[in-house]
């Protein structure tokens, strides 16, 4: 009897589907089916009549399968967009998203799509959002794409150059921009990802006065803080800290002499040690400075610089020049990369050490492409990624062995890439194209 | 498909005539209105409990279509006005509910509204998900709550009535009536669901105000007619009632607020009056050992600012007063043992109060300690008395007491000792008393003695007890020496008296300048033998006899042949031995023959001739005191039922006035080098220091032994300057410099 009662006959756009209330319940209370079969609506399953739903039956079949199996198979005759719209009608969009691609694994990535933008010139940065969307900064514009890769109204910074961007949640993007002299603008703002509207502007106050400043690299901590490298007009050089919920500035780490914090290229919040990695790199400065800041004690707890490093051979200089750095808390080390994509490592537990370069002799050396892009590093769940020219290398294991390489034939060098929402986004410098790499859903068995 | 094929057919027929494709389906101009009517009707049916005939799919599709065709705004405003309309209807029915039915009707309608809201939100789910976030609108559920708030809870006819009803019910519950707590909980929950601001503004704030008034009046009433203990009981009950009320039907966050109201009105505002209440206040509770009341007072007062400090201050001043009375009571001072026992009892009493009633509060313990420290030192003789108390306990008091109990008594004494400022004075007396105990063999338990020494050592360090320990060593060595003496000379000594010598190291013992008396011939011969034996075995030493500290056992036969063994002091022995060769001796003769210092001799004769039952001598004329003209005889009629008779010396157990002065002087004398040593130690490390800082540091360094007098420190500094240890700074005369 129980099973009998569970049966549901649906007439979707003229096609009869038989399923069970249990299957439909997987959609959750906050969906078309959840509401439809709620007691309030007095629509007991098992009644003889068909429930008519005036929707596309083909898409419904796909979505019903998704509820039955948890997996998404889109037949070639159904445009993705159509399916998404149907999913939105039923309130199943989240189900579709989580079934569309699998959990991130750098060694199983497949190119999913390439998006060609219309922005002129070089891209500054690409940042993956938490739910699979992304934003691309170009000059003074930030283009926002949702996970369906539909473009939303762009964020327009009114001709101020964007330095960095980052997602706070799936609808909020923080953007740091250059100050324009004498205009009192620039700095850092919080924007809506769906509408592109400015929601909040973050201030720097110095001696109780609100200052105009240029915000550089951004980082976000798990306890709702925003960090940004700041350059003000007078004394406000250093790292500013804001609270994400109140928007108020809660701290400022003033730059110590000779140590360019305000110009930092990269900030990285280290959750385990409660410290912020700050890296200021060539060519922004003649030398490289990497340090770890402890805000509780207002102290630089670790630092490294290549100032005064012995140069035995002028030709070696480029080879020893750090182009990007990333801290790896699990192994207590910092990974750096030079312009030939050689990786180097430093011990985070002792200060004043030197870089151990792992020289992976590359054929690349000496014959750079016309428009080279310097390497960038990223770390995701124990996998290390580095971009070099038109490819991204994946390194794994305790010795960081090269395990995969992602490459696509056009678009030129990769100027930035970002991992988030189980996707990898790579921004190319030439064609204003970015690629989306996804891990396919896990195999059936 | 159909229209498509038609199109192609047409094209073929009507050669190249291209017709604009009607890609925009002409929307029936009445379409939005019609669709909305359907939805509006549905909302009405939902509010009328008539939803069974509605098709969810149809309604959802209609709402979807409205949003899809850009009529989201119309849908939304329609929803607002429709819901507002129904809420106004509900409001009317709530307003007309009579008396007690008001809350019930409100609750019923609230439940209805919630259910309707859920169904409406189901229909409008698509709008909620797509139209609302992009258009800065309030989501349906929140909108429903806001409209309920504005049209019902904040409607002029409901708002005050609701508040008054709630407050009225709470008042009734406070006065002992039983109310419908379930209904209360639902209504309060409704206010909370409408947002913290609604709960706070529409209920919590006035509730707290009314409660404050209520408790202000009630506490005034109570304080007029109750004693302190009863009042506290009532306050405690009220506090618990309020906490219980919160747990039953208020927001948990209100607990701190309402309890602070009760605390303020019932406790903080009446704190001083309660503490000082005549015949029942804190002092009376302390006097009567009312632990329960004290505990209640502590627990209630700790909740309010300055509550505990109020209790503590009153307790401290009471304790200081009684303590001061105790230590300055002339009657008590007569009996040192009783005096110290009283202190210990007082300390036990307050320890018990603090542990039973005051939650073993550290600040109270500190107050207790500082009070004791304050009044114990009010009496300069406290160190002496404490030593006497120990003396008494170690002489007789500890017999038959288990080891643990001994420890307990000693620990308590140590507690008192810690309070003393003049620990060195205690040391002096302790040394004297210990010497007497050791020399007279009166100590009850060696273990107890040693255990106390260990305690003193842990308290004050090795220095403090090294001499005391030396005394114990001397006793042991003397035993061995005597054994050696008798093994060597035993044979030749024959039947001469038995001699026991305690060899005391100079410096370790509280010796007085030696005034050797003339010993009887038999004894001095024996003493000479011992001297030559001792100096023969130990080279480079000097022996001098402390005849004032010895004892002797004499066998005596009286007139009718009654034999007794007399236990006397060395002085007494010397006197009595004179009567072997004489019947009558005058004071002068005795003084001449023995050369005992006159004050000692008088005391000695007094104890031999004037103590009833122990008067082995007879005196002429008979009187209590010894005169220089008196004459003495053997008291032939002396009788005693004991064979052994102990003749005590009339010694004031306490010191006589000149002795006291002397001890005092010696203490002062001993302090000088200690103060100087401290100054030198400090200056050696600091090199330069000003006067005030030296005083502070020296006082700090020495306070474990005594409280150094600043005047004395100044003198010591000057003496050190004279001896070129220090110099004054040339520029700043207040600065001293250390000269290496």
Automatic annotation (TrEMBL), chain A:
<comment type="pathway">
    <text>Protein modification; protein ubiquitination.</text>
</comment>
<dbReference type="InterPro" id="IPR011333">
    <property type="entry name" value="SKP1/BTB/POZ_sf"/>
</dbReference>
<dbReference type="Pfam" id="PF25279">
    <property type="entry name" value="Beta_prop_At2g24240"/>
</dbReference>
<feature type="domain" description="BTB">
    <location>
        <begin position="6"/>
        <end position="76"/>
    </location>
</feature>
<protein>
    <recommendedName>
        <fullName>BTB domain-containing protein</fullName>
    </recommendedName>
</protein>
<dbReference type="InterPro" id="IPR000210">
    <property type="entry name" value="BTB/POZ_dom"/>
</dbReference>
<dbReference type="InterPro" id="IPR057441">
    <property type="entry name" value="Beta_prop_At2g24240"/>
</dbReference>
<dbReference type="InterPro" id="IPR003131">
    <property type="entry name" value="T1-type_BTB"/>
</dbReference>
<dbReference type="Pfam" id="PF02214">
    <property type="entry name" value="BTB_2"/>
</dbReference>
<dbReference type="InterPro" id="IPR011047">
    <property type="entry name" value="Quinoprotein_ADH-like_sf"/>
</dbReference>
<dbReference type="GO" id="GO:0051260">
    <property type="term" value="P:protein homooligomerization"/>
</dbReference>
<dbReference type="InterPro" id="IPR015943">
    <property type="entry name" value="WD40/YVTN_repeat-like_dom_sf"/>
</dbReference>
Automatic annotation (TrEMBL), chain B:
<dbReference type="Pfam" id="PF00888">
    <property type="entry name" value="Cullin"/>
</dbReference>
<keyword id="KW-0833">Ubl conjugation pathway</keyword>
<dbReference type="InterPro" id="IPR036390">
    <property type="entry name" value="WH_DNA-bd_sf"/>
</dbReference>
<dbReference type="InterPro" id="IPR059120">
    <property type="entry name" value="Cullin-like_AB"/>
</dbReference>
<feature type="domain" description="Cullin family profile">
    <location>
        <begin position="381"/>
        <end position="609"/>
    </location>
</feature>
<dbReference type="GO" id="GO:0031625">
    <property type="term" value="F:ubiquitin protein ligase binding"/>
</dbReference>
<comment type="similarity">
    <text>Belongs to the cullin family.</text>
</comment>
<dbReference type="InterPro" id="IPR001373">
    <property type="entry name" value="Cullin_N"/>
</dbReference>
<dbReference type="InterPro" id="IPR019559">
    <property type="entry name" value="Cullin_neddylation_domain"/>
</dbReference>
<dbReference type="Pfam" id="PF10557">
    <property type="entry name" value="Cullin_Nedd8"/>
</dbReference>
<dbReference type="InterPro" id="IPR045093">
    <property type="entry name" value="Cullin"/>
</dbReference>
<dbReference type="Pfam" id="PF26557">
    <property type="entry name" value="Cullin_AB"/>
</dbReference>
<dbReference type="GO" id="GO:0006511">
    <property type="term" value="P:ubiquitin-dependent protein catabolic process"/>
</dbReference>
<dbReference type="InterPro" id="IPR036317">
    <property type="entry name" value="Cullin_homology_sf"/>
</dbReference>
<keyword id="KW-0832">Ubl conjugation</keyword>
<dbReference type="InterPro" id="IPR036388">
    <property type="entry name" value="WH-like_DNA-bd_sf"/>
</dbReference>
<dbReference type="InterPro" id="IPR016159">
    <property type="entry name" value="Cullin_repeat-like_dom_sf"/>
</dbReference>
<protein>
    <recommendedName>
        <fullName>Cullin family profile domain-containing protein</fullName>
    </recommendedName>
</protein>
<keyword id="KW-1017">Isopeptide bond</keyword>
<dbReference type="InterPro" id="IPR016158">
    <property type="entry name" value="Cullin_homology"/>
</dbReference>
